[in-house]
Amino acid sequence: MMSSASMTSREACVGRDLVDPLRSFRDRFVIPDGIIYLDGNSLGPMPRAAADVLNHTIEREWGQDLIRSWNSAGWFDMPVRLGDRLGALIGAAPGQTLVCDTTSINLYKAIHAAIGLRPDRNVVIAEDQSFPTDLYIIEGAMKSAGRPMKRRLIGTDGPSIEALIDRNVAVAVLSHVNYRTGELLDMAAITKQLHDVGALVVWDLCHSIGVVEIAFDDHAVDFAVGCTYKYLNGGPGSPAFISIAKAHQATAQHPLSGWWGHAAPFAFDRDFRPDAGIKRFLCGTQPIISTRGVEVALDAMEGVEVVALRRKSLALTELFMARVNALLPGLDIVTPREPLQRGSQVGISFDNGYAVVQAMIERGVIGDFRAPDLMRFGFAPLYVRFGDVWDAAEILAECINAEVWRDPRYNRKLEVT
Ligand SMILES: *Cc1c(COP(=O)(O)O)cnc(C)c1O
């Protein structure tokens, strides 16, 4: 891997960009002039082809072909077809992944199914630092489990997952990359630890798909879910994905047994009979226009290897942390320096972080802020350049050295931060 040690000037970074094997991919996205976009971990930019393809979907498929498009434009098969394509990014063989619904809904389906597959167990493990929807959905899935369930939180009920694992555990719901710190968990080791006591795992891949290598099949992962609007660039609110290992498909039940999950949806039977395979995890009619956004996004990644994304991502985050350390020694970077332990974002804990992020946005560097004090910067290897990283660190230092938080206009809280 190219280390940041050789990138000690802006010129060296720009030179590195000229030989970057991924440099051609940036052109496949719309990045507004003058913007350094470090928030692709929250909402990826628009693929350049999106406007034309979505316009075609609206004008032609919906406008002219009308209901025929369910067949002629392949609308009905999109969750499965795109699921198979997306599955390749996480090492899941075809027939195990659907593009559908939202991450929150897919979490509910997966957790409920996992609890049902372990009827003699009553514990769900989660992380107290988890993204809140994961915790909230676990609460809901436990309430609807049909038997009393208990939650054990890593960080609250025990210091580590090892301390909480025993034969009462039905399932653990874990974020592959933590949305705040960017910490990457060891999927292989943890999945094995859980399997060794007979427990299942649901991996939330929201912050790792598209930037970290994932081996769903090789690690015998049971369930995975994640977004398509972050590093996959599917567009605001684009449907999520769910993966279920082949081994569980015949027995896993999910609670939202809608007609798209029926073995014969167009038989219009009175009673629910689940599809034998992955389609049982569908519920109902999907948002086709948004789903088209996922297809455009997968097209924009065509030809890229996840291993190359990961390599560049690590080099970008390494460079950013090195520059921040050099310019602002003492600043509290919460992201692990060890490459095997971090995803594609860098979090910095700073009391006046909100104002600093606002001031940086005004200067063209878009990151985001998570209460109470975390500045987050995501480094998407498809379009972020090493030169951008250099400039972003300079602008961060400029804002902090100028104490921008003294200016009240940077402290006005927006609804979405
Ligand atoms: C972004 C994110 C979600 C989002 O869930 P939605 O249902 O799309 O709102 C869920 N979990 C994690 C870990 C996330 O990072």
Lay out the secondary structure.
Elements: H1 10-18, E1 29-30, E2 36-37, E3 46-47, H2 50-64, H3 69-72, H4 78-87, E4 97-99, H5 103-117, E5 123-127, H6 132-143, E6 150-154, H7 161-164, E7 169-175, H8 187-196, E8 200-204, E9 223-226, E10 241-244, H9 246-249, H10 288-300, H11 306-327, E11 332-333, E12 345-349, H12 353-362, E13 365-366, E14 368-370, E15 374-378, H13 386-401
Parallel strand pairs: 2-13, 5-6, 5-7, 7-8, 8-9
Antiparallel strand pairs: 1-3, 4-10, 9-10, 11-12, 12-15, 14-15
The chain binds pyridoxal-5'-phosphate.
What does this structure look like?
This protein is an alpha/beta fold and 417 residues long. The protein has 13 helices and 15 strands. The chain has a 7-stranded mixed β-sheet with strand order 4-10-9-8-7-5-6, with helices on both faces. Strands 11-12-15-14 form a 4-stranded antiparallel β-sheet, with helices on one face. A two-stranded antiparallel ribbon has the order 1-3. Bound molecules: pyridoxal-5'-phosphate (PLP). The site of pyridoxal-5'-phosphate has 13 residues, from helix 5 and helix 6.
